[in-house]
Amino acid sequence: MMLLPLLGALAIAIAPSTNELLTKQIALATTLIVAVAGILTTISFDFNNTALQFVESYEWIPSFGIKYAVGLDGIALILILLSVLLAPIVVLAGWNESEGGRWGAKTFYILLLVLETMMIGVFASTDVFLFYVFFEAMLIPVYFLIGGYGSGERAAAAVKFLLYSLFGGLLMLASIIGLYVISGNNGAHTFDINELAGLSQYMSPMTQNLLFLGFFIAFAIKAPVWPLHTWLPDAAASATPGTSVLLLGVLDKVGTFGMIRYCLTLFPDASKTFTPVIITFAVISIIYGAFLAIGAKDIKRLIAYTSISHFGFITMGIFAMTTQAQSGAVLYMFNHGFSTAALFLVAGWMIARRKSSTISDFGGLQRVTPVMAWSFFIAGMSSLALPGLSSFVSEFLVLVGTFTRYPVAAVIATFGIVLAALYILLPVQKALHGPTTPGNEAIKDLNLREKIAIAPVMAVIVVLGFYPSPLLNIINPAAAQVITSQGFSDPLPTSNGDK
Amino acid sequence: MGGNFLAPTLEYSLLSPVLIVLGGAILGVLIEAFAPRASRSSSQLFITLTTLATALTALIRNRNGESVTVAMNSMVFDGAGVLLQGSILVIAIISVFLLADQDNFTALAAALPGSNEERISVQQQLKVTEVYPLVLFAVAGMMIFPVASDLITLFVALEMFSLPLYLLAGLSRHRRLMSQEAALKYFLLGAFSSAFFLFGVSFLYGYSASITFSGIHDAVIGGSGNDVFLLLGIAFLSVGLLFKVGAVPFHTWSPDVYQGAPTPVTAFMAAATKVAAFGAMLRIFYSVLAEDYLQWRPVLTLVALVTMVFGSLVAIAQRDVKRMLAYSSIAHAGFLLSGVIALNKSGLDASIFYLFAYGVATVGAFAVVTLVRDSSGEVTDLNRWSGLGKRSPLVATVFSGFLLAFAGIPLTSGFIGKFSIFSAAYESGATSLLITGVLSSAIAAFFYIRVIVLMFFKDSVEDGTSVVIPSIYTQFTIALSFIVTFALGVFPAPLLEFISSTATFIR
Q1: Contact B453/A147, CB-based, under 8 Å?
Q2: Is there a domain that residue B166 lies in?
Q3: How many domains, in total, are found in chain B?
């Protein structure tokens, strides 16, 4: 499945660069085939088996004990599913996105497909070294996608993104080297995640804490958790809507995914040590992101800030160390991917039509462009976790799961929901409702291609809001496994919450 | 004993790679003297390449021979030595192709800049074909340097590869004054460092009453000598070696020389000198002074830390691509020093891999620099590189590839090198090297990326800067180094295995 997008990229590279349509068709076909493959994989996945499935392993660099090893657990599967589903939507929704770029459509779609390969690889790899290779190499296509095809200060935003990520990545590299050496001192050099998981018993608390921090800072930059978030608004505001969808919808999930897969599994003691600090940062992210979002004037920045708030919820859920919160966090990753995708895509269309990304320039779109306005409205409602839409389930699970262990954090975080209502409803009111302000009268509604692109996103948002259990069935065993490996048991629900 | 002269026994087959290179160099000198001017350029190139290729073949044939001391104990041939010699030969081969592009060299080296002779020589389209034998002499010296096993041979080899390089540095066609200044600076500072080196040699002799490495090693183990002499000896010897690799605080020559020298020479010098000098350093510290590590390790660690950080920080401020690459090479010298400090088998393997990978990428990067020109020669001002990605996407992409390799991004050889060398350092307990190394890599990434930004995301300035169509030779150099850089990033296993099974020092 990982090879497919690469083949597509190759096909585009070979295809004549003058024929843009062919390029786009190849890209769409490739991403669709990959999406179907992803769905088939999900169907054949054995829910009740907590071991890794679809395992493949080949020697890569034997002298360092490095393997090309991939395999899926429920969490990885969900995120891969998210990636492969969003990719064709992004291609279709951003049909003309490569216009205004520096290098034309061909390069754009090659980068996009290479990126898709790496996204699948980063979630699937079960070898820490391989994971790192994807983690870092992924930055290069994103960097060129933002810097080459974005708008505004795109070069500066791309550099900021790359430097932040590289810095985190290098810290992680130091930790990986640490793991490598420790594994060599206690047996054989290995990067196998399962073998490394037993290694923490050989580390002094100090070592474990330092190695944990190396990983965690890298993931916290990626996720992004306050105070390491400052690259995100710039990157999201400058990137094309499609790139933003992949950036916030999928790439940032690598951070939260890494926290579960690597921080928790490899360093259980250090994770416990740092949990209070991390929960605090997560709560600050929730509230701080929400306040920034309320103050945002630019629609893309607004979405980026809301994401910071949402990533706060996800991080909190991960480190609350209860199965409920953990499952909620994973489901949240999936849902956030779709609701952000919807917001960014619709916002992208609005911006392209109005030629402005300032919220106050819009007004009364509901009357002029009902389909677009409704899409934005539903996406926004999902973002503020309205019951009946997908995010509600996950946010509820995270809050309940956190409350059983950290009631104060959960209570403060709940205010995030109130603020969310503000930051979503205010722009909705400004842009969609009320009288149609000058400049907005002639805006066209979504065309057929755009409708086809947004429809599946809307469907997912609504369906998962009512019926999330198929996904939860996949996630729950894996999440429970992680929590058990931490030596935690779920606290019994208590009425006074003083646990 | 009086009149008896003991003829030295020489193991000709083992020495053959070095002898072939020297023979080729002498042949080149003869051609300079006797061949007609018109045919020199092509025949020199042919002879140089044949020589290097033959030497490499001879070396490969020797590869499975046992580790032995040769030439009356003045050289040793062991796995590590053969690997280092092989790296030097490979790097020499790919950089010799750059020399073929004679536009980079002055027409008549003896003519004063701006003089009548110079103008006439340019009109007559003279060529300095003596660069080929000079390079061959330097290669021979570099090949001896890491396999020398006594201090005298070591010193002779040092001078043998340094002198031709001093000359070569002054041969630039454009900006000749700067080139000559660079040569003079290189020569004076180099002579100075040689003096230090000799000083160190004499102290080590005073300490151990021996000039052979094994003799010194015995004295170190025995611990009977005067430790002050030993320490002074190590210190001065290290100054000479650190000068050659461009470690802080002995680095000041490198930006000027890198900038002033003709770019093909810079490419060769930057890549091959590092291999030779680090090769010798590895041998001395691993096999001669290993037992005395408590004394030299802290100081060398400090030098390595300062070198990494300084090189990366100062590189940020550079406005000239060659100077930037010079400071980046200083930073890399710091990374390589961690391999020396590691003092374990994985450190040795990692250093050899790193040297080879870095050398190849360096030659490739400088080869790209030779392509960007305006009417008056190469353009090295970074501001004028902006928008290169638009005008010549291929050249800009390839250069970005080399920069990413320097920055150590995964899937390039630089990443594997960095990973292996830092893990070796950490294995030996040098946590500070690991952390500083990683942080300075982050700093270094900044200026590599800045160049990529310039090339791809900035609009071009219309000032006549253009990319020349590379000659077939330059194309070959760039293509080969690019392929090697990425092949070693994706499939490093064969080379790593080969190195780890071959690289050993005999004591």
Answers
A1: yes
A2: yes
A3: 1
A-B Cβ pairs (cutoff 8 Å, strict): 89
- Write out the residue range of the structural domain in which residue B85 sits: 12-502
Whether residue B494 lies inside any domain: the answer is yes
Residues in chain A: 499
Q: What's the CA angle centered on A303, arms A302 and A304, to 5 degrees?
A: 90
Give B421 to chain A, closest Cα distance, Å: 10
Name residue, tokens 């250069």: B399
Instruction: Give the gap in angstroms from C-alpha B147 to the nearest C-alpha of chain A.
Output: 26
Distance CA B233, CA B219 (A): 13
- C-alpha closest to that of A457 among A35, A10, A8: A35
On whether residue B2 sits in a domain, the answer given is no
The two tokens of residue B186 are: 């290189």
Given a contact cutoff of 8 angstroms between Cβ atoms, the answer to whether B333 and B274 are in contact is yes
**Does ipTM come in above 0.85?**
no
Q: Is residue B271 part of a domain?
A: yes
Q: Residue B408: which region, alpha, beta or left (left: phi > 0; alpha: psi -120 to 50)?
A: left
A499 within 8 A of A409, measured Cβ to Cβ: no
CA atoms of B253 and B201, how far apart (whole Å): 23
Could you read off the pLDDT tens digit of each residue along chain B, which spans 507 residues?
A: 456 777 777 778 788 889 999 999 999 999 888 888 778 888 888 999 999 999 999 888 876 666 777 777 788 888 888 899 999 999 999 998 888 876 767 777 777 777 777 777 777 777 778 889 999 999 999 999 999 988 999 999 999 999 999 999 888 877 788 888 899 999 999 999 999 999 999 999 988 888 888 888 888 888 777 888 889 999 999 999 999 998 888 888 999 999 988 889 999 999 999 999 999 999 999 888 888 888 888 999 999 999 999 999 999 888 888 999 999 999 999 999 999 998 888 889 999 999 999 999 999 999 998 888 877 777 888 888 887 877 888 888 899 999 999 988 888 999 999 999 998 888 888 888 888 888 898 888 888 888 888 888 777 766 666 777 778 888 888 999 999 999 998 888 888 888 888 877 765
User: How near does any CA of chain B get to the CA of A471, in Å?
Assistant: 34
Rg (alpha carbons) of chain B, rounded to whole number: 22
Q: Give the nearest chain B residue to A163 (CA atoms).
A: B446
Strand partners, B378: B373
**How would you classify the pairing of strands A66-72 and B68-70?**
unpaired
The amino acid occupying position A185 is: N
pTM, rounded to two decimals: 0.88
Pairwise CB contact (< 8 Å): B449 & A159? yes
Q: State how beta strands B377-378 and B466-467 pair.
A: unpaired
**Of B503, B497, B499, residue with least CA distance to B79:** B503
B493/A63 touch (CB, cutoff 8 Å), yes or no = yes
Which residue bears the tokens 């993104």? A161
Q: How far is CA A320 from CA A74, A278, A310, A406, B399, in A?
A: 19, 10, 15, 7, 47
Widest pairwise Cα distance in chain B: 79
Place of tokens 């295995």: B497
- Residues A3 and A118: their CA atoms lie apart, in Å, by 10
The DSSP letter of residue A127 is B
